[in-house]
Amino acid sequence: MIDISRLDFNLTITFLALWEERSVSRAAKRLSLSQSAVSASLARLREAADDPLFVRTREGMQPTLRAIAMVEPLQNGVALIHSAFSTVTAFEPATSRQHFSLGMSDDFQIALGPVIARRLAAEAPRVSVTFRQANKHRVEALFEAGEIDFAVIAQPNMRSGLQQQEIGRSGYACLLDPSACDVKLPLTLEEYLSLPHLLVSFSGREGIVDHALKSMGLSRRVQSALTHFSALPPFLSGTRTVATLPTHAAHSLAAVSGLTVCAAPIDLGDYSVSILWQRTADNPWMRQIISEAFMTILSDLETTCSA
């Protein structure tokens, strides 16, 4: 048995050139090779097929029955290989049934998720999407496990295997029920510190507000600690409490809960937001959908804040 894995693909090209030209010299000219190189390839072909394949006659190199039997499968094989390297299947949103898995923390799911879902329903009704909980500490493992296709991450830690595109910046705001808190907006630092706080943190112990206050020699009273921003509305509605969270999530939660957003009375700065993906699994259309969703959120925030 011939070990196919050891055969050179170029032998197939030489075989087909000899088939069509019926001449070593013409095949060599066609392939831009020397006659001795084509003759050497023919010798290897004969050894592999255990057959002369082409026999020299007055009319040229005539194929044997074995060569005649081989030509069609080899022609088909070369055509398939050519097609594999030259044909790019276009992604058609309107007809695609592709599934995407998007990794992001729940503040981005709250703000971006509905915008992305509405775009898909309008432009790609058969495309489905799963939103997976992710942050900059878990995102690499999720990509390596093949569990996500894209990620939206705040201030990601880059590594060489992942591509990154910054899509905007976000900051922090307060979310509260002003009537229940009995305060007038905007909050002063004194009012802010007098209110019990709801902390949203993976550790459940401290967050960026505590770090900022500590640098000022101040502290707050955390009444309850949660791990997901989506749980905030029922904890805040009708209660004398305040939460500090990413601005995009604060406005999205306020829109569906009747709570109020106001500026935080301390400087918490802002941060970059990026899409991450693997070079080998990119889908520019989906990446654009995610990017435009975040730009829509930022545009809505600017309109709301300036109103």
Helix-strand blueprint:
Layout: H1 9-21, H2 24-31, H3 35-49, E1 54-57, E2 60-63, H4 65-86, E3 99-104, H5 106-123, E4 128-133, H6 139-144, E5 150-154, E6 162-170, E7 172-176, H7 178-181, H8 189-194, E8 197-200, H9 208-215, E9 222-226, H10 232-236, E10 242-246, H11 247-257, E11 260-263, E12 271-278, H12 284-306
Parallel strand pairs: 3-4, 3-5, 8-9, 8-10
Antiparallel strand pairs: 1-2, 5-12, 6-12, 7-10, 7-11
Helix pairs in contact: 1-2, 1-4, 2-3, 5-11, 5-12
Number of strands: 12
Q: Sketch the topology as an H/E string, one letter per element.
A: HHHEEHEHEHEEEHHEHEHEHEEH
What spatial form do the alpha-carbon principal axes imply?
A: rod-shaped
Structural class: alpha/beta
Strand content: 15-25%
Regions with pLDDT < 50 over 5+ consecutive residues? none
Q: Between the first and last Cα atoms, what is the distance in angstroms?
A: 79 Å
What is the radius of gyration computed over CA atoms, rounded to a whole number of angstroms?
32 Å
User: Helicity range of the residues?
Assistant: 40-55%
Strand arrangement within the widest β-sheet reads: 4-3-5-12-6
How many separate helices? 12
